[in-house]
Write a structure and sequence with these properties.
single chain; alpha+beta; 5-stranded mixed β-sheet; two-stranded antiparallel ribbon; 7 strands; 24% helix
Length: 170
């Protein structure tokens, strides 16, 4: 049976440990159990770890840079809106802004790049009302994995790790 780990019983097909009379069902491994008998459950011992590749559903960290722009807006309003967004979502690392554009950088935990990008593309629109963000459009998106981000930093590209966290003018 596919999808069953070695050493575990398939649903309705494990070997029984209780005796009994009546018809017996044959399990996936050829064992038999009494009708209505529960299959034996197995567990993973404390400290056991997955060996090999990470399962595909394991979340990873992605560095996201979202760029937005549009019609000019008063700088104090842009700053206040970005500060509110950062307050509502403390995952934001840094925001830079001017009166007609802004850039937001943050870490996103997601299963894959597609999920991280989908969340990033919804961020501005979903929080436009609650944070009072300007009606700007997304004009750029970069999503890179953690190792690529660290390779860039080591090579001298990208923002220095000591860049202050928070909302700053360009």
């Amino acid at each position: 049976m596919s999808g069953v780990r070695p050493g575990t019983a398939a649903s309705r097909g494990g070997t029984g440990s209780r005796g009994g009379s009546g018809p017996r069902a044959t399990g996936a491994r050829g064992g038999a159990r009494a009708a209505g008998e529960e299959r034996a459950l197995t567990s993973v011992a404390a400290g056991d770890r997955f060996r090999g590749e990470e399962p595909p559903h394991t979340p990873r960290l992605w560095h996201v840079t979202l760029s937005v722009s549009g019609a000019r807006a008063p700088l104090p309003e842009v700053r206040r809106a970005l500060e509110q967004l950062a307050h509502d979502h403390p995952f934001l690392l840094t925001s830079r802004y001017a009166d007609d554009h802004a850039e937001i950088r943050y870490w996103e935990e997601a299963r894959d790049l597609h999920d991280a990008a989908a969340v990033a593309l919804r961020l501005w629109g979903e929080h436009r009302q609650t944070a009072g963000l300007p009606p700007w459009e997304i004009v750029g998106l970069e999503v890179i994995d953690r190792s690529t981000y660290h390779q860039r930093i080591a090579a001298g590209y990208g923002p220095a790790p000591a860049t202050p966290v928070g909302v700053h003018p360009f």
